[in-house]
Structure prediction request, 189 residues.
Amino acid sequence: MQPQPNRKTTAKGQAGQESGAPASKVVLQNIRAVCELEQKALDERSLGERIGDGVSHHAGRAWFIVFHLIWFATWIILNAGLVPVVPRFDPYPYPFLTFAVSLEAIFLSLFILMSQNREARQADQRAHLDLQINLLAELESTRMLEMLKALCQHHGLDAELSPDIEQLSKPTEPKTLVSELQHRLPESN
Prediction:
């Protein structure tokens, strides 16, 4: 299944062409891969997750607020006796309106929480992917520094390495970094 084009990328033409320069083949492959991953995540949602996402999507729109304003105003006008041909069905203090709004708030909050939980799981997966890519990039950089150092030595070049470069040419230990961060980061109350 081909991912649907996003309006944001089609508004200015093809992705990567904002400055007039065509996007490289590699960039377009990466964009296509990301779009396919996003489409796969959307396709794999359960029916409940789809409903929750739909409700969350529409509940955050301006029309939702306008709808509620009209609903509440109409309800109050009808039950205040301002329309004589309509009998009062929920007189002040509007207990049935309170009941209906309370039920709506409960279900709306549950749908939003369900949608947020799915988005949090997806964000965690993206963070893990980012970490893997960053670790691979760091390893590649370390290997390139080692190769440059070996090339300089092979050609007899006097390449005085600064302590920073010497340290960067050693593999990074993620566990050590995490431990150091945990030790140094301020605690939140």
